[in-house]
Each structure stands twice: as C-alpha cells, then as structure tokens.
Description:
The chain is mainly α.
Amino acid sequence: MENKYKSVIDEAVERLYERYPELDVKYGEAGRKKCYEDNVHHFNYLESASNVRDSKVFSDYALWLNSVLVSRGMKSDHLIDNFKCIIESLEKSDVEKGEDFKRYLNGAIESIQNADRENMPSN
C-alpha cells in the first residue's frame, strides 16, 4: 500500500513542512519520517473507508486520533492542516480513489471542527 501513495504522501509532508518550517527545527529528519508514517496510517484508513464505502470509518479514526494528539499538547489545526495538504496533493495526482479520499478528508475536517466547537467552554 505504501508505494501506491508514496508520491502523494511525499508531497503532502513537503507541503506541511513548508507551512511549518519550525517542525524541521524542532523534530528534524526523524520528525519528517514520523509524519510520513502517520500519513501512511491515514491512507490505510482512507482505503478502509473506501472499501466499505463509509466515510464514518475515516471520520471516527480522525476524531480518535485528534483526541490523542490534543491530549499530548497538539492542536486540532495541526491534523486539519495535514489533511488539507493531503487533499492538495491528491488534487494534483491521478490516484484511483482520490475523489473518495478527498471527500472523506473534508468530512473528517468538518467532524473535527464540529467536535472542537462542541468542546469549547461557554462563557
């Protein structure tokens, strides 16, 4: 599976690091490698969602992952931006299930944003 999406993942990671150059400073090459591996996981879930034709498979994964990342001090925006980088990379590719993947990624972004709004403290 990894080789099937390697060029899209490579481009998405590059886009993310262009937007956040501080990531290179903070995490270096090991961080890029981990980011790449994380994106491989994203594509595994995108494939699963596509195979069963259920966007909820990916959205549930994204919500779970976001909760883990936020509990470790990350912001939802990091994951959302990563998903946006994948979408932009998919738009320039001819990945067979690219349209499905973009729809699932956009749905996951919306789910994360909705969950964030629901979890905001009210004044």
